[in-house]
C-alpha cells in the first residue's frame, strides 16, 4: 500500500524536524544538507517512489561529493540485498568495528563470560601479620573500581591481617605488555579514547573507562589565583600541573586538560571566571598497573593495614603456589556490552580482543585476538579476502570492510543464540536514557526512526558510520549500513545524512 502525496510531505517534514533536533546549532540549510538550488522537496518523492529513488536523492547531496559513501540495505528476514552503493568497496568503519568485536566475543567467550581479579600471597599469616608479598593479579577486568579495592582491603582486615611484611605486587601478565594498539593516533593517547590496555586496570566510575582518572576544575572566588582541581579517584599516581588563572565573573572560560605524553603530568591551563561552570575531563594514565597499585595501597591504609620493613610497590609475576585470599568477578559479558556498545567504549574493544587471544591461543595480544576475530566474522558472512582488522575499537584508520559484508554479518548474527544480547547492546535512536539510547539518544528524536532504529555509530576524522536494524512503515525488518569516508567539513552534517537515510527506511512502505 502506497502513501498519498500529503502523507509523504508529512513524513518528510518529520524527517527534517528530526535532523534539526539533532543539530539545533546549525543553520537550517546546513541541517537539511542542501543548497537552496538543490532543495529536497516532498514532490520529488511521488506516491510511487521506490526505495532506490529516495536513497538516490539523499545520496546525491553535494555534501557527499568527493567522499566514498558505502550504503547497503538488506531484508532482515531473507537477506535479499535491496540497495547497494559502493557496497563492495573497502571502507573504514570507525566504531562500527565494535560490532565485529562484540559478535566475535559473544561467539568465542559467551554471554556469561566474566573477568576476574585476584588477591594472593605466597607467605603465611601469623596472628595479625602477613609474612610475605601481597599480589593483586589482574585478568583483564575493565570494570574494576576503587570500591572493589576497598572491599579487598576490608576482607583482608576481616581475615585478621593488619600488618604486611613484604611487597605489594601488581601482576598484569595475563596479557602482553603492549599498551597501545598499533595505529592509535598520538593525539588520542592522553585521553580516555586512547587509554592504555593492561590486564590490571581501574575505572574511575561506572562508565568503565579503564585506565583513566576524572579531572574536575572548579571556580574559586579569588580572581588572580588558580582554579581548584580534584581527581576521582584521589591518587598520587598522577601529578597535577595547575597553570590556570581565575578571572573576573563574566569573562570567557577557556580550560584545557591534557596529560603530557610519556609521563603522568596532567597539565591544566587557561582561564576560569569567578562563578564559572565546572570543567571535567577523563584523562588517561601512563602505565595503569601502577595506578591500581597506588589506589590499592590507599585502600589498605584506610583499613589500617600497614606495610612494615623495607616494602615497596612493584610489578611482578604471581608465584604458581600462591594462594588466593580474596577475589572478584566482573559483570557477565552481556552486561559489559552495554557500556561498550551504547557508549562506544574503546578500551573495552581492545580488552575483548586480547581476552579472545588469551582464551583461544593462550596469548593475550592484539595479534592473536584479531586472528580469532577474523575467524569468527568469516563464519558470519564476511569475506576474509576483503577485510583488514587492526584493532577492536575502530580507532585505527587502517581497518577496512565493505558495507555489503558488514550488512551480511548483521544478517547472519540473527541466527545466533546470543543475538538478543548483541542487539540490545546497540544504541536506540531518540531514547533519552543514557544506557538505552547511548550515542543515538540525541539523534532522530522524532519521526518514524525514534525508538525504531537500533544501530551502532562510528566517528573518526574524515569517517562517519551508522549501521544496524530498522523496521519500515509497513512492518518490513531491514538491515542497513552507511559508511562515509573521506569527508571534509562538518561531522554533524554527515551524521544527519545518516539519520536522513535511517528515517527514510523507517518511513518507507514497500507495498504489496
Strand residue content: 15-25%
> How many structurally independent domains?
3
How many E strands? 22
Assign the CATH superfamily of the largest domain: DD-peptidase/beta-lactamase superfamily
Give the overall pLDDT as a whole number: 91
Q: Biggest β-sheet: count, sense, barrel?
A: 5 strands, antiparallel
Write down the oligomeric state.
Answer: single chain
Output the number of helix runs: 13
Portion of residues in helices?
25-40%
> C-alpha Rg, in Å?
26 Å
Major sheet strand order = 2-1-22-21-20
Q: Under the CATH scheme, which architecture of the largest domain would be assigned? A: 3-Layer(aba) Sandwich
CATH structural class of the largest domain: Alpha Beta
Task: Look up the CATH topology of the largest domain.
Answer: Beta-lactamase
Low-confidence stretches: 1-44
| Secondary-structure content class | alpha+beta
N-C termini distance: 6 Å
